[in-house]
Amino acid sequence: MEQKVVYISPFKQFISVIFALFLRELKTRFGGRRLGVFWTFTEPAIHLVVMLLVFSFLRARMMPQVPFELFLLAGIAPFFLFRHIATGLMSSIDANKALFAYSPVKPIDVYITRTILESVIYTVIFAVILFVLWIWGGFDVSIANPFGVVALYFLIIVFGFSLGVIASIASSIFPSIKIIMSIILLPLYFLSAIMYPLWIVPAQYIQYLKLNPILHLLELFKANFFSYYPLVEGINLAYPLTFELILLFIALALYRIRRLSLAAKQ
């Protein structure tokens, strides 16, 4: 009897692999761990409440059109997304190395799947907190420029992906990179104008803060989220976009060089 060969296009195979990995990651992340689900969704909310209590004195210096609660959320949510993608990709290869015995599964599939998972989780968290602020807080959570917000959100995801891939490949050679990344991300959180409006910072210090590409993306995200949000002079898309494209090129180039080593890593 002649055996029929079923042809599967590379794209369909890629989608199937990503979907299977996504379900596996989802089960590993939340399966049987109710506390894990609870903490994942409450960590940003608790962080938001703590920041409101600590920085409540800034309310008087905010514009009346931008409630401080929404200002904090518009900074915390995308930064947490960026941070979790970047740090999550560093451990993704070790967590899935047994799967590389199957030829359809490649390290890049693991990177993409982990990025999609973190993006879905934090998008849901962002939406839920916005809903709570709308229903129980009575805030106007309408978005001034939805397309701009989505575009900036996507750029933040790609930024986290690029940094995470580079850090993952580097940590496969130098394990101490994971510790260094954690150290770097901590001051970056305070230097990205998440807890304070950028325009209250003295001009002589703003020029140094503007060297941080994430600051530009977050400020532009807020400017598209709120109708009346004053952008500080020098905040633009060209700088972070150029930085991000270079970072993405480096990430993909390193992956091409090290892809076989990543799959064979014991």
Report on this model:
With 266 residues, the protein is mostly helical. It is built from nine helices and no strands. The relative contact order is 0.13. The N and C termini lie far apart (42 Å). The chain has one domain. Helix 2 (34-54) packs antiparallel against helix 3, helix 5 crosses helix 9 and helix 8 (213-225) packs across helix 9 (238-264). The longest helix is centred in the first third of the chain and has 29 residues, at 68-96.
Rounded radius of gyration (Å): 20 Å
Helical content (DSSP H or I, runs of 4+): over 70%
The total strand number stands at 0
What order do the SSEs take from the amino end to the carboxyl end, as H and E?
A: HHHHHHHHH
What would you call the shape? globular
Mean pLDDT: 86
Provide a count of the helices: 9
Main sheet summary:
none
Q: What is the CA-CA span between the terminal residues? A: 42 Å
Structural class: mainly alpha
The total tally of domains equals 1
Please indicate the percent range of residues in DSSP E strands (runs of 2 or more).
under 5%
Which runs of at least 5 residues are low in confidence (pLDDT < 50)? none
Task: Please give a handful of descriptors for the protein shown.
mainly alpha; 0% strand
Break the fold down into its secondary structure elements and pairings.
Elements lengths: L9 H21 L3 H21 L13 H29 L10 H29 L10 H28 L3 H14 L12 H7 L3 H13 L12 H27 L2
Short summary of the structure?
This protein is mostly helical and about 270 residues long. The chain has helices at about 10-30, 35-55, 70-95, 105-135, 145-175, 175-190, 205-210, 215-225, 240-265. The longest helix has 29 residues, at about 70-95.
